[in-house]
Amino acid sequence: MPAWLPHIDSSILLDSLKSFLLLVTLLITRALIVRWIAKNQALSMEAKRRWVVATRNSILFALLIGLVVIWAHELQALAVSLVALAAALVLATKELILCWSGAALRVGGKVYSVGDRIQIAGHRGVVLDHDIFATKLLEIGPGQASHLYTGRVTIFPNSLLFTNVLIKENPSQEYGLYILEIPLKDEDDWQDAERRLLEAANAECTPFMEEAGRQMKLLEQTNLLDAPSPAPRVTIQLSEPGRIHLVLRFPAPDRGRSRIEQAILRRFLVG
User: Fold this and answer.
1) Fewer CB within 10 Å of terminal CB in the chain, N or C?
2) How far is residue 207 from each of residues 105, 164, 234, measured CA to CA in Å?
3) pLDDT for 179-220, tens place per residue?
4) How far is residue 198 from each of residues 182, 204, 214, measured CA to CA in Å?
């Protein structure tokens, strides 16, 4: 070795070579898996996106574990210094650590995954992607009553999982129960409106009522709770003077909620 080159410990060179080979191997593995997923015609676009995200996060996790194993003996020599450094880093990178912890909470608690519809801290949408730092949503709106995509993408840090309540609108099931509110005036014939609303809901929901009932039974067995009946029902609310609100609860497929709601409204208004 020339005299002008600094002396490098052979163990460091070996560890560097191992790290490089690990990185190349994982990148090739990820490329092959993603190519296979993209060409698999049996998977839907959402399933492909879910598998690509899972593959990327798994490869990243494997890389981190591999680097820790490869450099373990070097890290041991720096352990004492790292303790003091870690204390300073915790103070300086508090938000970053909360994001990592939020990612661990999401994975460990199976809080949500790609394709789920969630609400958190005023953000509402379908999960497009997530990593150890943040989650990406395709926004749904405007407001809480709408089910239409706005075309905007919302990104929130995983640290919000520790400071905000998260609502999962479709808890891992194909069918769900949803609410539609019809405001009326005091002088309106609310009994006739209630009858027409129920008739409209029954007409639109009958084709999948049996399947929705089976899913409610499965939910009951899985969570050990009394699941509600999927049959449409109307309750009456007097939330403000001079107004009567008919609140319809109806079943609908998760991906057809807006279509069913609009069909019920149109049938109710025409009737």
Assistant:
1) N
2) 39, 38, 19
3) 899 999 989 999 999 999 999 999 999 999 998 888 888 777
4) 12, 10, 21
- For 111-120, the pLDDT digits (tens) are 898 888 899 9
**CB environment 225-240: b (16+ within 10 A), e (fewer):** eebeebbbebeeeeee
| 175-270 is classed CATH 3.40.50 | no
Beta pairing class for 175-185 and 148-157: unpaired
Do 221 and 181 contact (CB within 8 A), yes or no? no
List the chain domain ranges. Answer: 10-77, 117-168, 175-270
> Residue type at 125?
G
Residue 48: closest CA among 137, 117, 115, 134: 115
The Cβ of residue 25 has, within 10 Å, a number of other Cβ atoms equal to: 14
Q: Taking the CA atoms of the chain, what radius of gyration do you get in angstroms?
A: 27
Q: Which pTM was predicted?
A: 0.58
Angle (deg, nearest 10), helices 10-39 and 45-70: 170
Q: Measure the CA angle with vertex 118, ends 43 and 172; round to 5°.
A: 50
Residue 13: exposure state from Cβ atoms within 10 A (0-12, 13-18, ≥19): exposed
Cα(33)–Cα(169) distance, integer angstroms: 31
